[in-house]
Prior knowledge:
CATH class of the largest domain: Alpha Beta
Strand content: 5-15%
CATH architecture of the largest domain: 3-Layer(aba) Sandwich
Shape: globular
Structural class: alpha/beta
Oligomer: single chain
Distance between the termini: 49 Å
Amino acid sequence: MNYDNIVDQLFFSKEAADYLGISVQRLNQLIHEGKITPMKKNASGTLFHIDELNKRRAELSIFDSYTDKGGGKGMFEIDSQTKQEAVNFATFMSLLNCTESKAEPEFENLARNVDLASPLDDLNTCAIYSRYLNIGVKNILDVYKATFKAYTQLQPKDEIIKRGSPDYPPLLAKTEQAPRFLYIRGRKSLLFETRTVSLVGSRKASENAQDSTKKIAKLLGENGITVISGLAKGIDVAAHRSALDNGYNTIAVIGTSLNQYYPSENMLTQKEIEEKGLVVSQFSPASKTQRWFFPLRNGVMSGLSLATIIMEAGETSGALKQADFALKQGRQLLIPESVYKNNSITWPKKYVEKGAQVVHDSFEIIRVLAENRIFKIKGVSESVDSKNIQQTIEDLLLHRENRQSESKTRGRSIISVE
């Protein structure tokens, strides 16, 4: 037995943190979140195997580069004012090293002195930026050229949509979280779907929760509702896969640029959504992905949805960010009864007090959505009155009772949200 090889594959906490390029505190946080598993842990210390560290290292690598060679095929042409302004704005944000919300007012101030869609490699334009930002022309041009190059790596058919344009999704435009630019890949028409529901939840979801998510996504699709989620592990990818596998519409709102696939195991699903559905990002191809991008995109995801269903989530789950956004934006927020009755978490009751609604099973979800006019029920006109919609709901419930009766006869039970 080669003991030297074995020793080389084992790392103590400090060594593991150095190998991953993170702090020991961050390493402990990853352990607590279940994102990395020690080989052994006792009073003497904590040991990690190199295979586990390499797996986590690959996941962390996305935060070290703003491009993914598998993403864009190039060459995306900067051939419109919107595209050029997007490049300029991304450059401006990089120069200020700040968020969009802080950069946008400053960028708008520039409009008093310069056309915001004027290329920054024009020396007169660059000189105005230089005076405004008190940054040297050479530094500005260096950042601009790197940003421009990153944009050319988008796919030729990708689109950039500016807030305020006719192509900007009307639902999202009504919210405070509407970004200045949206980057999209796929079927743009899905941005104008009037029946949209987000299914979100834990990345480490239970099998029951993932199964329920798949069934609900299928039922939503059957009723003409577009399923929206965030392409994360667990609940998100289960929702997308169910929609795709059953031939229904789905939109992925991602926390990276269009040219990145994260997590890597969802790459094939993301590529399939690019072909059959729609992938939406608020982040430019020149932006270096940050961890706070992911909760930030929940505001856009909720903004594109008339309702959000939290399928399963712990006390610190990012899905609760979307719950906050949904309530703030005046959108419907639904919580499965099984989640509400889970005594190990306290958040469901807090959100019900704020306006969330508890639902027992899949058909009650459809009933609630129908009552709130989230979608147009099949065979009923847009001008349907309350009497007709109530009759349709009763028909749905009757269908549910018949299903329950048939299920008992066959030894099966109706689909429930568990």
